[in-house]
């Protein structure tokens, strides 16, 4: 297994490097770095000073090296708007986004798995058809529109839940989290549900496909032939087999969820990284944009790698295959 | 115990029924018949055609041209659906803050949404298919390189890629199209490469190669048509995805300019009025967007079932 | 004395879109205590479906449409799901063909054995584990404690099948149905398993139905043999008598096509033609189109007759001529 892990680690490192090149080129070659990195309000003298400081007059490859060096040190530029290091800004907002993404993932599994199981075990029932139709809606509907509808129904019309913002927070491990307070939870429900909708549909379809395939397998028939109760057959034999792919995909999608939180955070005015980037794009606070992209790409790749490790730990067949190979 | 004479003549074989001349079953006819098996898909397709026609003929159908400032009466702004306006005609779906008729706005918005969505999807189709075919046909290093790029790109969420591109290039319709093309080409490439790899081994390609036909001829005249079925399915879904992506980007203010609003932008405009109860400004464009996307996805779903060779009944 | 199992005129049909498939069409046989019945036929002859029918494991679109299944005098055809569940694994057990697909790949061996014990008896987990261990010893698996903690894919094919046999024996069932259990194994292992199963059944007094397409397997193992063709039994009788002097042309063809019976250098004898599709069976005797002795009489459906005591066949033209006193 270690050989496999090292190989994956190298691959991930390569991808990270490739991404830095792309981002670098995007900023320094395609876009106009002067526009992007230097505040538009700067006058000529400040500009020239900034250009010299940022090394924009040096050859491209040298700029790349500086870029990388700075990135390693954690210096990803300074925000025009807030005049703070971009990295610090983003890290401040990260807990809010992570909270949202986790809640959405939990919703996706808690809601999607049982529904998918039901639809898989009774494929011809009316309820199953409704569930499958719902899942098509779930991934067709644009997230932002669903968010609007949720606000309209639950906040405006019914007044059950707050419409925008993050609730009060409590501290845990040195970071402020809102799910630790009751009001915080109330604020979390709608945006998390909104964000989770796409994943719920995914989980439903995956689970259902997995169940339909597994139920036909010989070992399920054998389990029944042994006289096991239907509950045990479903919840141990069938479920354990489909859990692995479902959990893997869910974990892989976590990165995607964080990316898509951009939309949800905008609608619900949730103060996370996503909202920060959209606001930054509006006001053309380019250093923050660049820093955000760097961080999220990095997170993404780390996440994929972690999932690979987890997968090989979970599936006994993969684990031993690598031991032998 | 002798069997009746007729049966004796057909020992060991069942007698043939009197054959009626069969209706000519071309692949197209069978495809249409298979597709029509699902009434939901059929309804969805009809709906889709209606939407496209409405968008095409918008200038003639719409009671008002919402971008002609002369026709607007700002006093009619924010009217609920059904109000009769100053000009004498009914605002079927209400008006927005500038007094623009929502119904007309939606029709014009549909045009933009469909044009940008379908247009980008089509360009992505051309680029992706070409690259996928090249990868499959030439194999070896070309294949590896192209597929690595595809895998890399597909592992990133579409919105992230789009954001990156718009961050570097700025706003505007052209950049949105570019962003969508960059997001979508990889799906086409991967699909077509898979199919093409299989088709490439078939005899007709061998035959064409023996005839010393040029590469481009083989690829485009022989290989491509046989790879079409999964491409059609993917293409349909991608159009829906492109429309949704454009709407999302426009909603976030990163997409089309205000002068030519797509449905996404219309929804964004009405967002602030949601909380004060004037839901129609966002709601109806949202429904229009929703219906369009769902309908396309339903058609695509049925297409996938019909064109899937493994489900051949 | 009541037979362990008596099947009378069993009919199991599959209702597919293409038509009604009569997989089992009027099958009758009986087995006494401690006896071994060989159920022989080509693939598609209905032997596996017969086995499933006895355990009530025929899944839609198939179902048992007629006949009686008397297990120790009790008719199983009207049982409720819960009664079936109690019966399976405890009174009647089944061994499937491919042990790789029969054992759940993501569950450990001990889990799969202990759950079988606990499905029918209220004992502690330790007691169940002890029973499982003992069962493994009984089937000749070395280091049973380690093996219990292993996963199916860590075993060889022969071992896995032994585990399956161990599971079948856990509750000392009165009847075991073995569906081609050695087909997927090496010939040498085949011999071992055959011998051990025979010994175990003799020791415990368990009746055994051994389903196979391989006559040579049946020859050394069974007491009685039933030959099936196209869903019907065409010949029944004591194994030595049937194999030495087959009455039905199909049986004769089967025996004649066994390679060891043929002369070296000459072409292998074969039954001409192919098994008919069960969806479009010709009228009359199903073997008619391939039978060297068929004539117009065979256009009518033959019934089971008993030309000699202890022998039954379904044919208008039995090989009576070969029965030399």
Structural write-up:
The complex is a heterotrimer of chains A (325), B (313) and C (325). With 325 residues, chain A is an all-alpha fold. Chain A folds into 2 domains: 2-72, no CATH class; 87-282, Orthogonal Bundle (MetI-like fold). Chain A has helices spanning 2-30, 33-37, 44-54, 60-73, 86-121, 126-140, 143-157, 182-215, 218-225, 230-268, 273-283, 286-314, 316-324, and strands at 170-172, 175-177. Chain A is globular, with a radius of gyration of 24 Å. The N and C termini of chain A lie close together (9 Å). In chain A, 40% of the residues are buried. Chain B is an all-alpha fold and 313 residues long. Chain B is built from 12 helices and 2 strands, in the order H-H-H-H-E-E-H-H-H-H-H-H-H-H. Chain B has helices spanning 5-8, 27-35, 39-56, 58-61, 102-138, 140-154, 158-169, 173-200, 203-210, 215-251, 263-274, 280-307, and strands at 83-84, 90-91. In chain B, helix 5 (102-138) packs antiparallel against helix 6 (140-154). With 325 residues, chain C is α/β, with parallel strands linked by helices. Chain C contains 11 helices and 12 strands. The longest helix of chain C is centred in the middle third of the chain and has 18 residues, at 187-204. The model of chain C has no long low-confidence stretch (mean pLDDT 85). Classes of the chains: A mainly alpha (325), B mainly alpha (313), C alpha/beta (325). The interface between A and B is large, with 42 and 37 residues.
